[in-house]
Amino acid sequence: MNPGNAMARGVLTSDLMIARIIPVLLAFMLGGLALAQSPDPFEHGSRPPLSVFDPGGLLDPKVVKEISDPLATIQKNEGIDILVIVLPDLANAPPEHVARRFAKAWCPTPIHCVVLHVPGRRDSPWIVPAGKLIEVLEPDQVRQAVEDGQRRAALETKEPDKVRAAATEAADMLRYWTNNVINRGEMMRTERTKMRVQLETKARLWRFAALLTAASAIPIIAGVSLLIFWFSRRGPRYFPNRAWQLRLGAPHAGGNHAVATIGPPQP
Amino acid sequence: MAMFSDSPPPLLPILDAVGLWNESELKKIEAARDSLRRRFPQFQWRICTVGLPPDTQLPLFGFWLLNACPLHEKETPDERAWTVLLLIDVASGKAAVIPGYAAESCLTDEDWQKSLASMKTRWESGNTAEAVIEFFKSSRSHLDESWKRNGSRRANK
Question: Is B95 in Cβ contact with A262 (below 8 Å)?
């Protein structure tokens, strides 16, 4: 075999291999990127149309509707999203963690709350508020309100009542906080406006006072100038002391010719 | 100094030898004089009315009067040099101004003659005191003009 031909064939073979490998590598890379960018799928899928999620059918559908309808109305009218989750079991997961996962997956609004209930558990239901609204509130205030609400809901004896009570507590809680924040915001806006008005009034008064001062200073300055001018005009005037020489041996005056007839002679 | 035989009287501010003016007129004249003196504090004004014999040269008589009159108690030679004597001869109907050495440099004879001439109208109408006041007004006017040329606001020492 011609060594030149063998070399040429070897180069051709390696080019073909590279051409085959590149698409495979690209496919792996793109696949990896796609996997890295897409979040883990939520095990419960997408959010159901009702505000109560009861995959185990632990509540009567009528009760589910009774609880869900008012929550839907609140969400529609006030933008407060209360999601009730009823699960048979948490599989040893902390209730707050579970609730937050639901909130993260299904509650994109800034004011929302997940009410999680596991029938049979003495510490259920749990109320977990989240979102932008909660971030602006005092944590102690939130914790206290949540604990009170949970305690009141847990006092109910029947499971549906517990869920209903917890949902009501959560809705009331969020409505109260929302209104409070709105009121506070409005109050702050009002106060800001009031302060701005006061500042503007003060600034206007200052400007007016400055103008008035300037306006009154002009005639005062003019008056003082006139007075100075007037007094200077009226002030004494002096002639220079010139040296003189005695004339005709006279000690005080040398005589002159300033004489005029001012009237007829009198006999 | 011995050109007139009489011994001269003291040179009072107003020496009304012929008794032209009453008290009220004298006060008016003094007020006009004081006003002029406030304006030109250097000047000492003397007014003298006389009835001289005919052919008496009024300027010469005034020259003698100003020099021969002794300085009175508080008068200094410097004040006499700043004295302006208005001498009025009722008999001849003439008036003369005799300034001291210091005062004569402030106004010319022509200026003084103009001031004297300003008296004429009032004098002829019989208001002799007013005529003197007019003299002061005219003198003030001429002194103001002269002061603008070479005066100052402060007294020269």
Answer: yes
